Input
Amino acid sequence: MTGLLELHRERVQPGWVDYNNHLNDAYYMVIFSNATTTLMEHIGLGEKDRLAKGHSLFTLEVHLNYLREIKGGMETRVETQILGHDQKRLHVFHFLYAEDSPELRATNEQMLVNIDMSGPKSAPFLPEVLAKIEAIEAGQVGLPRPANAGRAIGLPRK
Amino acid sequence: MTGLLELHRERVQPGWVDYNNHLNDAYYMVIFSNATTTLMEHIGLGEKDRLAKGHSLFTLEVHLNYLREIKGGMETRVETQILGHDQKRLHVFHFLYAEDSPELRATNEQMLVNIDMSGPKSAPFLPEVLAKIEAIEAGQVGLPRPANAGRAIGLPRK
Output
């Protein structure tokens, strides 16, 4: 088992923080989106691949949980788990940490769809991309499902 | 009934688009986050109120659905529905449109918590803020619940 992917690191930029020098809620999503871009490169859907193969991923839906603050200038790191896929969809889960602390700062679940850019229209993954996805999944078989996966937002019913 | 709040308009900035001149997924969240800032001003939790009263809202959890592309330079507008509240939490739903088109581009559900900044710790809403929230809710009693509210992400089970 290879476990979670550790692909993405990124420093908090000055324009991303609020009056209190804390990372703004929206910019957690900027980091998670960049982590997906890094994942795409890892599975053969980077910029060069998009130009050569005409395929890319679009985001259908995301869910974020904000657990702890992140301060301006901190280096963040994202660990990534693939929760599943079908012919054209990829279900991804990111864990966000900062500096060398083991405390989880935020989580992000994403549903992505493979797109043939010549349409553009949704299309099955290219065989070499599918093989990469399945190889990652094979290395993550023993991982527990993240506690925040599949969450819905709501207040307790009265 | 006053219906949905139409509080926020914002133009897509050049740094927010991809190679294809489409709004990046993360920057939908920047617009939704700014819409919540506008809502906060509307209910008495703007920057001046924060300094005077020592209360603000933090984001606990968000969910976004991406429905249609938005191009660079477009003016976006957000319509807002309050789905509920308790003593210290506010459940908000934003609808995102662009230009004069009636086509829904994206939706965003948010769970926010009221914070007493002197802790900082979660605290009940100030009475004047609670009154504003309840006045908005009273004007939205007849609105249907948004189709994307309470969604969870997942692939169909095999």
In short: The helical segments of chain A are 25-42, 47-53, 127-138. Chain A has a mean pLDDT of 96. Chain A has one domain: 5-138. DSSP finds three helices and six strands in chain A.
